[in-house]
Amino acid sequence: MKNMSKFSVALLACTAIAPPVLAQDDKIIVGFATAESGFMQAYDKPAQDAAMIRIGEINAAGGLLGKQIEVVNADTKTDRAEGAKAGLSVIDAGADLVVVSCDYDFGAPAALAAEGAGLPSFFLCAESIKAGIQGVGPNSFSASVLAAVQGATMAEWSFTKKNARSYYRLLDTWTEYNKGICDGFDYMLPKLEGASLVGEDTFKNEDASIAAQITRIKSLPAEPDAIMLCTMMPGAVSAIKQIRAAGINSMILNGSGVDGSYWLSAVPDLSNFYVPVQGSIYGDDPNPAVTAFNAKYKEVTGGDPSTQYVYPGYVMIDVWAKAVERAGTTETAAVVAELEKMTAEATLFGPRTFSGELHHQNSAMYLIVETENGKPAVVDNWTISAPIPVADLMK
Amino acid sequence: MQTLFDALSLGSLYALGALGIALIFGVMRLVNFAHGDVISFAIFALLWPSIDAVAVVFAGYLPWFLLIPFVLLMGAGLAVLSELVVFRRFRRASPATMMIASFALGFVIRYFLLMLFSSRPKSISLLPSLSQPVEILGARIPLLQVITIVATILILLALTAFLRRTRFGLEMRAAAENFTMARVLGVRANRVILGAFALSGALAAAIGLILASQTGTVDIQMGAAVMLMAFIATVIGGLGSLSGAVLAGFLLGAASVVMQTSLPIDARPFRDAFVYGAVILVLIFRPQGLIAARGTKERV
Amino acid sequence: MAARTPASAARRTIATPVILALILLGLALLAVGSGSRPFNQTMIDIFLRVVLAVGLYIFVGNSGVMSFGHIGFTCLGAYAAAWLTMPPMMKQTLLPGLPGWLMETQLPYWAGAVIAACWAAGWAALFGKILMRLSGIAASIATFAMLAMINTVYSNWETVTGATSSVVGIPIIRSIWPYLIAAVVAVFIAWGHAISRAGLALRAARDEPTAAAASGIDIARQRLIAFVISGAVMGMGGALFAHSIGVVTPDTFYLTLTFTTLSMLVVGGIGSLSGAVLGVVILSGLIQGLRWLEAGVSIGATTFAIPNGLQEITLGIVMIVILAHRPAGIMANSELNWRRARPEIPDDVPGNMPTNKE
Question: What is the ipTM for the molecules in this complex?
Answer without folding.
Answer: 0.84
